């Protein structure tokens, strides 16, 4: 009970400012949609990541908070939806972050290819990444047949999980394709980006066009690396634990998995809007100006009110 209260308090404490940041970014994305979305394709995947993480906080997290508060799920009828939504949205964010790493690398070093074939190399892969997690978990969770003796445990987190995890083929596919593949792809492209930045910073002359390209895309690179690092910190512990459990010791890290790792995905969602702001100077500029104008107006009204009295 104490552990659940601590976890719930920490999640709520970090979730509230994150939710406010999400709302501010969405507001300015709408106001500046022609600047941010029509003319800059690099913001498309960031917006998709933000929407996915926002859905995690607003539509999936309440189920977890309810479980942490009560210690059980109110109705077994909610189990299937909770499992589906909990499995789908984090994997969607992971795949989107992986795609962001690949596309950012291409936009920095091979931008012309992307811009000349935007449908093939931008819209189509982004669309696939957005649709795939929903489709695969419809099959694994809603269609895949459970055994006649399988029942959801309403006293366990996520009602004990999906029944396909008891099937070796589906379990391996989910672990490798839906988690390890995007995580390691994200790691490879992030390290490659860092490596090329270091090389061009210390070896290549500033007059060479590639170095100028890195300077122009500095915010975009920092935004990607921030989101990627946060995502990898969340997913890598889970991957390591699952690999050791499958290959060596089935009980390895079980307590850490139950008490910590199962909740880590929320912290990636909490951090994503703040890291997204690194590559959104237009949003920061508008927000700071509106706050400055509001502060000046309030002070002027206070001064006028005092002078009249």
TrEMBL record:
CDD domains: 7tm_classA_rhodopsin-like. It comes from the Eukaryota. The keyword Nucleotide-binding does not apply. Residues 21-276 form the G-protein coupled receptors family 1 profile domain. Its main location: membrane. Keywords: Membrane, Transmembrane, Transmembrane helix. GO terms for cellular component: membrane. This is G-protein coupled receptors family 1 profile domain-containing protein. The lineage of its organism: Eukaryota, Metazoa, Spiralia, Gnathifera, Rotifera.
């Amino acid at each position: 009970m104490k552990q659940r209260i601590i976890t719930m308090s920490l999640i709520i404490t970090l979730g509230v400012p994150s939710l406010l940041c999400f709302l501010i970014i969405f507001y300015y994305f709408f106001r500046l949609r022609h600047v941010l979305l029509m003319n800059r394709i690099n913001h498309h995947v960031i917006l998709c990541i933000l929407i996915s993480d926002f859905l995690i906080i607003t539509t999936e997290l309440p189920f977890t908070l309810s479980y942490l508060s009560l210690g059980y799920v109110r109705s077994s009828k909610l189990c299937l939806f909770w499992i589906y939504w909990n499995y789908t949205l984090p994997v969607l964010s992971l795949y989107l972050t992986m795609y962001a790493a690949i596309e950012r690398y291409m936009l920095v070093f091979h931008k012309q290819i992307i811009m000349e074939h935007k449908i093939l190399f931008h819209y189509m892969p982004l669309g696939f990444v957005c649709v795939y997690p929903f489709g695969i978990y419809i099959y694994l969770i809603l269609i895949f047949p459970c055994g006649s003796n399988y029942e959801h445990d309403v006293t366990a987190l996520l009602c004990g999980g999906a029944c396909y995890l008891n099937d070796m083929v589906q379990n391996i596919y989910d672990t490798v394709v839906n988690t390890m593949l995007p995580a390691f792809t994200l790691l490879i492209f992030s390290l490659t980006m860092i490596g090329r930045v270091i090389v061009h910073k210390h070896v290549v002359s500033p007059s060479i066009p590639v170095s100028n390209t890195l300077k122009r895309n500095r915010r975009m690179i920092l935004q990607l690396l921030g989101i990627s690092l946060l995502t990898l910190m969340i997913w890598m512990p889970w991957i390591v634990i699952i690999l050791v459990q499958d290959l060596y010791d089935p009980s390895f890290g079980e307590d850490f998995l139950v008490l910590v790792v199962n909740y880590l995905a929320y912290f990636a969602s909490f951090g994503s809007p703040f890291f997204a702001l690194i590559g959104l100077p237009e949003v920061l500029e508008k927000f700071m100006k509106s706050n400055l104008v509001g502060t000046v107006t309030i002070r002027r009204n206070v001064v006028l009110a005092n002078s009249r009295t």
